[in-house]
Amino acid sequence: MAKTIRDYYKKDWEAGDIRTGIVAAVSVKIIEPVFESQTKTKLGSQEIEPGGQSMRSFIGDFVARELDNYLHKHPDVSQVLQERILQSERERKELSGIRKLARERAKKSSLHNKKLRDCRVHLTDSKTDPCKQESTLFITEGDSASGSITKRRDVNTQAVFSLKGKPLNCHGLTKKVVYENEEFNLIQAALDIEDGMDGLRYNRIVVATDADVDGMHIRLLLLTFFLQFFPDLVKNDHLYILQTPLFRVRNKKETIYCYSDEERQNAIHKLGKNPEIAPVQGLR
């Protein structure tokens, strides 16, 4: 694919810039396939037919021919593809100049970062550790919220990262912003996902903001950050939302926490005359 696109545009682009953003599926039907093991995880057949063309050569020739024909027939698509490749090239060059500085800053900050209260067990620990699937990072709104969670957390499996305030709205921005923005860079370093999901240190990342307008705004900004730059966290079910109650309804015998106006009305009806009704502030 990379060679065909280079030949078509007559540009010596890097293969990584060409492949970025491209998803392809190739369906090949083989008569009497031979597999290398009983689990059938790897195909052992190297030729289309005995004494015939190799599988790699057949697929390579097919992709090269069909892709080149398609680009010549659809100049509008080829224009979009070229713009995407150039964008990827620009982003790579921008990042190369600041990655080293960002890594050094993150490494230094990790030693003195009071915003991260780490746990003892991580997802990257030994496969035999039964607790690593419980490893969780709570991202909280400010020091007061992180303080209340820190007092009640399990220090073995639950870590807390405290935001300074509202994070940057990164919608439509390039990954360069992750390295230039100190808070985003520290989150990336805490999760250890700069080079992919293999280094992910926590099985669950929980956005734990207040149940008010500001909290909802911060939640949306964090979701935008993860969806924009680390969508695999969402696709692989690592990202969660901590839903906090809006109201507390109680009498002398019972306390009910409510997550909506409907639940509040039901609680009032259940507890009878003149229950105490109070909005819940922050994380409890």
What is the fold's blueprint, element by element?
Layout: H1 2-9, H2 15-19, H3 55-73, H4 75-112, E1 116-117, E2 136-141, H5 142-152, E3 158-163, H6 176-180, H7 182-191, E4 204-208, H8 213-229, H9 231-235, E5 239-241, E6 247-250, E7 255-258, H10 261-271, E8 276-279
Parallel strand pairs: 2-3, 2-4, 4-5
Antiparallel strand pairs: 1-3, 6-7, 6-8
Helix pairs in contact: 1-3, 4-7
Short recap of the structure:
Helices cover 45% and strands 12% of the residues. With 284 residues, the protein is of the alpha/beta class. The chain folds into 3 domains: 90 residues, no CATH class; 125 residues, Rossmann fold (3-Layer(aba) Sandwich); 33 residues, no CATH class.
Based on the model shown, name its key terms.
Rossmann fold, 3 domains, 8 strands, 5-stranded mixed beta sheet, 3-stranded antiparallel beta sheet, 284 residues, alpha/beta
Task: Tell me what the structure shows.
By secondary structure, this protein is of the alpha/beta class. The protein has 3 domains: 2-91, no CATH class; 114-238, Rossmann fold (3-Layer(aba) Sandwich), CATH 3.40.50; 247-279, no CATH class. It has helices at residues 2-9, 15-19, 55-73, 75-112, 142-152, 176-180, 182-191, 213-229, 231-235, 261-271, and strands at 116-117, 136-141, 158-163, 204-208, 239-241, 247-250, 255-258, 276-279. The N and C termini lie far apart (54 Å). The model has no long low-confidence stretch (mean pLDDT 83).
H/E element string? HHHHEEHEHHEHHEEEHE
Question: What structural class do the secondary elements suggest?
Answer: alpha/beta
Q: Alpha-carbon distance between the termini? A: 54 Å
Q: How many β-strand stretches?
A: 8
Q: What is the topology, as strand order, of the major beta sheet?
A: 1-3-2-4-5
pLDDT < 50 runs, ≥5 residues? none
- State the helical fraction: 40-55%
At the fold tier of CATH, the topology name of the largest domain is: Rossmann fold
Question: CATH architecture of the largest domain, please?
Answer: 3-Layer(aba) Sandwich
Main sheet, how many strands, which sense, barrel?
A: 5 strands, mixed
Oligomer: single chain
**Overall 3D shape:** elongated
Let me know the average pLDDT. Answer: 83
Strand content: 5-15%
User: How large is the radius of gyration?
Assistant: 26 Å
